[in-house]
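Protocol step 4 of 5: obtain the predicted structure for the target chain.
Materials: sequence only (see below). No template structures provided, no constraints applied. The aim of this step is simply to have a reference model before the mutagenesis design in step 5. Sequence pasted as it appears in the construct record:
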Amino acid sequence: QVQLLESGGGLAQPGGSLRLSCAASGGTFSSYSMGWFRQVPGKEREFVSRISRNSDTYYKDSVKGRFTISRDNAKNTVFLQMNSLNEEDTAVYYCAASQRTLVDWRLRSSYNYWGQGTQVTVSS
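Step 4 output (structure tokens):
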């Protein structure tokens, strides 16, 4: 069983930056693909980014060039650096882990484990 704990959320101004972290415990972190999703009230949870076991990365189109996902296997942690934030980025951000292969990484069902989420609010 893997436990995931997100941190780093908060309030940022438009154009600002935040760095989210997700610390994993209870499993072999390096064997998991890791993803970030986000959700606003009344909407479906949506894919943001994913990093494979080999550190291949993939992004939702609207965050490409602004967000960067990375992982530190020695620290069992995945990061999401978010730059040039805008109000549309406001959401609860969730970290997810998957041991599955040959799946669509944009789908929630492709992930085995989820964190509790961290709120990101972008407002002036």
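Step 4 remarks: The mean pLDDT is 96. The longest strand covers residues 18-25.
Proceed to step 5.
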